[in-house]
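Entry 12.
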Amino acid sequence: MSISRRTARTVRILGVASASAALALSAAGSALACDISEFSAEAKCDGGKGVIVVTDKDASRTPATISVFLENNNADARPVGKPQKVKGSATGTTVTFAEDWQPNAIYRIHVKAGGKLVDADIKPNLTTPSTACKTETPTTPAGPSKPATPAPSKTPSQVGTPTPSASQSSTAPAGTASNAPSPAAGDSNLAETGAGSNTGLIAGIAAALVVVGGGAVFFGLRRRGANSGR
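Predicted 3D structure (tokens):
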């Protein structure tokens, strides 16, 4: 049975279309497949503490497991935390590893996704910044300020009262001689009382003379009366 020219042309067209569809599906599958190039890592500071952030931009959302290791002389020194699972997105999905990293430290980030689809390290290895994270010092809120204590007011008796200085002291210096002449030792009693040791003697003699004179007058008058009676 011979195939007509028309039938052969139709078969040829269907074959080309099938091949094109297969290529398109293959390309689409390759585009949606998870790839190590869709993963990236960065060392950051979060509140004064170091962290390592891994970003997955796999649009196929293939589940992946991320592991981080500190390197020392091209060998794993220790793992950083525990492996974390992530499902990527076109905009990027992140996982964070807490790590107090030191400046210029090197970390290896390993990605395993889709069974054996991805099993590789992010290249190149992550090198941390040359400046370490600074711990933020919490600021203490200032308390309410205390009102100023007013100075005590002075009473009227205290206002305008000068304080005597040493040069204005009323007490005269000890041992300062007076300029006034001192009285003689023998004249001080007479000048103050008006009497001396001779005053009493003179008064006694005067009194005796008065008595003697009075007696003489009395006897003289009596004798004169007696003579006139004879």
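Annotation: The longest helix spans residues 199-229. Residues 23-31, 169-177, 184-193 have pLDDT under 50 and may be disordered.
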